[in-house]
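Batch job 17 of 40 flagged for manual review because the log was empty.
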Amino acid sequence: MNARVSATAAVLAGLALIFFPLLALAAKLVFPGWMLVLAIWSSWMLLPGYIVQIVVAANGLLRRNGVLRRAAGGWRAIIAAWVTSIGILGVGFFLIDGGDDGRAESAMTVVLGLTGSVQAGDVSMMLALISGFLWLAGWVWLVVEWIIQLVLARQVRTLA
């Protein structure tokens, strides 16, 4: 296996880091409710993480000489980028949301026509919890990989 990542894999992972959170928001808008309101209220916590994600994507993956594209262990960052991107998309698709009318659905239950099904709601929420864990764990993993590669690149420049 080649230690360096291909340009195509890096660009696709970088684009996923930028656009999958937006797709997750669009999926959440299929059945908005109080969880979406809480996400908007807590955007002061979510937005900095998304900005870091965009910086990692732009500087590490989308640039021709991005640190994650030329790193020997760059494939780990690609995997972490996909884990966090799929995780956030899963949260947006599976998270149960509802309003004051007592109805609670997710994009999954609406798309599959399973509105009102308690079992489908339970499965959807379980998948949302798993996706949430993957989203956060993948994000931390990605940022750690990026920092490691930045430090290694700086050491190489210092020695040269």
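Reviewer: the log was empty due to a logging misconfiguration, but the result itself is present. Strands lie at 97-98, 104-105. Unflagging and moving on to job 18.
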